[in-house]
Each structure stands twice: as C-alpha cells, then as structure tokens.
Amino acid sequence: MPPEGVAVAVPADIENERPNRPPLLAFVVDAESEAVLREGLTEAVPQGIDIRRGSVRAAIAALQRMATPRTLVVDVSGEEQPLSALSDLSNVVEPDVRVLVIGDREDLNFYRQVTRGLGALEYLYKPLLRDMVARHFGPLILHRAAPSEGVHGGRVVTVTGARGGVGASTIAANLAWHFGVEARRHSVLLDADLHRGSCAMTLGAKTGSGLRTVLEAPQRIDELFVERAAQPVAERLHVLAGEERLSEQPAYVPEASVRLVDALRRRYNFVVIDVPFSGQQLHRDLLMLAHQRVLVMDPTLASIRDTLRLLALPNGPLQPRRAVVVLNRLNLPGGLSRRHVEEGLKMKPDVVLPDLPKVVGHATSMGRPAAAVRGGFRSGLLHLAREVAFVRLLDSGDAEGVAALRPRTGSALARLAWWR
Known about the structure:
By secondary structure, this protein is α/β, with parallel strands linked by helices. It has 19 helices and 13 strands. The longest helix is centred in the middle third of the chain and has 15 residues, at 168-182.
C-alpha cells in the first residue's frame, strides 16, 4: 500500500502486460456486506466482482499464493488488532495495490490510522449501504475524483411514483416525518405538484403561495424567504407546498429549481421532494438535482413497465447509483406476487411495504403519519430511511475532528461535519 494515503497510478501499458492480475478482489465476512458491495459497485464494475468470504486474515493467506489485484477490498470486522492485520497485509501485496477497507469501528482515530497511517484509500464502517459504497468506493475503483456536491448542506431525496395512486406521496410524507420528528434532523418536505399535491394534507400542514413565488421569481430566493414560505409541522419538520387553481399554470424560470434546492440544503439536513414524473421541466430538473431517487411501484404489470422505464433515465450528476425501488402494497388483492414482480423487474425491490389500507388510509385521512404506528409499514419505512440516508450521523462532539478530515479525504466520515 502507498504511504500516507497516496494513490499510485498504474500506467495502462503496464497493466496490459500483466493480464493475470485481477482488476478487483474483495474479502468480506458476512452475506449482507457482500450483497451491498455487489449492488453498490454495479456501475463501477459492470462485469461483476470477485468476492470471497473471509476476513483480512483470509486475504493475507490467499494473496501469498496469487497475483495481487489492482484494487483490494478487505474486511477488518471482528479483528482484535485490525491495524496490525492491515500492516501484515501490506507485506504480501504489491506496493501499487489500491486498498479499500470496511469494518465495524466508528472511531475517528481509527479512520485516520487506516487512511493516513497505513495508506488505504478509504474506510467505511458497517452497516454498509449501497449508495455509500457507490459514492465512496466507485470513483476510487475507476481512478476518478469523487463527484462534487457543490454547496455543503443537506441530502436531497426525490420520491416518484411509477404511476398515479401507488402511494408515493404517502411514502414521501412519512419519510420526511421520520427524519424531522423521530430522527430530529432539520427536514423539509417539498411537494412539486402545485395543483393536486397531497403531502401537506397528509401531515396536516398548510399550503401557501411561497412555492409559486420562488419558481416564478428565483431572484427572491434566500434562506430567510424559504424558511418563511415553508410551513411548520413540528420543531424540525417543515412543508413547502402550494395549491394553485387548476385553471392556472404558474410560470417557471429554469434556474429556479437549482436556487431553491441550494437554499433548502443550506437550511435543512434532509430535503424530501415528492416529484411526479411528467413532461414539466420543473419535475425533470428536480429529479436531476437529487442525491438519491426513490421509485415507488405497486404489484401490477403496468407499474412494472413504468418502473423499468424510469430506471432507464440517466442519473443526475450527484447520483452514483440507480434509484431505490420501493414495492408498495404487497399482497394487494388482485395484484402480482412478489416473485412475479421480481421476474418482471429482473431484480429484487430494495424495500417492500405491505398492503395495509386500514392503517395507512386512516392515518392519511386524519392527517397523521402512518409511520408512527408499529407494524409492516413502519418497518419498511425505516428500511427505506436507512437506504436513502446512507450515513449514520455522529454525535455533535465529533464534528470538529471530522471537519479536519474533509479537505483531504472527502469520505463518508469527513462529510458529516455539516449535518446539523
């Protein structure tokens, strides 16, 4: 491994002279991490990944008898002396190997020792998430710089229904409620349907003219204006929604969505946007500005078709992997089985929510979050929250130390300092 975290670029002609050298090899100790690595690195390694079950000690034993891969992923979970094991690893691999480490320790000093002291390019701690792996391991495997996120601020998640009536607005509202009320992160729910959006109604919030104003006059957008336009639902949860007349079509200045999202990110940790897919430029722009897209479908043939079409859309510049697919209303009377849905999609949905018309319907009618009720809907929503909020937030006491790492690493740990 190169010293002090410096990556050694290997000229293409040298690599081509050694066809026996594997491009990527991973050693992990559990099935869950293996599945996340395979899914998260699909874009970076479309030909597939050679993943073997074992710890860093298994990697040391194997690499004593085989050619060193160009990129090596090792798992130090459960190791009593992980730094010693990584040091032993450096004695059996070639100096130019690009080492990526996963483990179960969240200690900031450990992160420094692994990346700065031992020269690993990156360290991620468990539980791994697909977006985390794609965002931080993918560019390193491809010898690329990590994508710039522009303004430092909150994470933007869009929720889009494959078709009308699949429950996307309900899921968006409950996801925002979980972030703002249960996780106590400053969160805002933006309903991009200015005419018939239901997010505000779902959470018992008011609508206003503020959203139309910022879309028609983006020069007025700033954090203070946005904060006044968004209606409070709880101490750390606001809703920004409109209810325009059906006979009117608000004007839209193309730069307005960028300025609006930037202002929201500076004010809130999480920006959840309910975005219907339509021909409107506003909706297309918002989908491109997200860090993570969520596609909601139900178990019907038409929903499968439209989900596949939405998955085929190009990713935005801040989206390192495909959209998270949510299968809502599983076991819907007359609907397809889970096996048939998976066969139609050629993949497994990332999150599955059961059909609970009484629980969800009653909560929606009363303007209360269905996620507050224990059961299948809440369990699925918590799974979704973990998928889209790919970082686990550190205690505020770690913020200063983490901030010091940002200029050098750009890692998941370094990224946490600006989350309120």
